[in-house]
Amino acid sequence: MRSRAAALLAAFLLLAPAAHAAADPQLCFACHGDNGNSANPAVPSLAAQPAQFIATQLIMFREKRRTDPQMSPIAATLTNADISALGKFFAAQAPAPVAKKAGEDVAAAGRQLTEKFNCVACHGAALKGQQHIPRLAGQQADYLRTQLRGFKAGTRFDMDGNMTAAAQPLAPADIDVLAEYLSTLE
To answer: Are 83 and 59 in contact (CB under 8 A)?
Structure first.
């Protein structure tokens, strides 16, 4: 009986780290960058995103309401506790300083578009996100551009339809300006 209990304990100790490895934020660093600061223009930065936003997106990936060839299989292994821990970890990370400043023309046009389309109503006054709404300030321009195009086309998952509706009046040039402007905000 003791040898069986010892074997079960040994198996548990060997498997326990693997079961919780999915919640290790360092596994996210390969794509999302050190501490969630992505260097890949197509991959979003997670640092300083609201914890609830990260958790919501991971749940949407896990439950196949949002799909991605890399994220969906990873999220499928996450428990609610893993998701909560990852959200809290990335929310507590400092965002990397922005790589470039916007030119005066892009800054002026970007500010005007964020005011015209009232982006601050949901994303907050500094566009740093709140609750389940993402931080846009300092996000990767290519990633933002792709997401806005997806919302406009109705191909990007949108939990409540607000972003799909907000993206409809955007012209392709507006999307480009917004993506460039938002990526330069601290």
So the answer is: yes
- Run of H or E including 56: helix 51-62
- Is residue 51 within 8 Å of 88, Cβ to Cβ? yes
pLDDT value of residue 89: 97
- pLDDT tens-place string over residues 118-160: 999 999 999 999 999 999 999 999 999 999 999 999 999 898 9
Distance separating alpha carbons of residues 106 and 62, to the nearest angstrom: 37
Per-residue pLDDT at 174 exceeds 70: yes
Model confidence pLDDT, tens digit, residues 66-104: 999 999 999 999 999 999 999 999 999 999 999 889 889
| Cβ atoms 129, 50 nearer than 8 A | yes
Are the C-beta atoms of residues 48 and 91 closer than 8 Å to each other? yes
What residue type is 94 in one-letter code? A
Specify the 3-state DSSP secondary structure of 5: helix
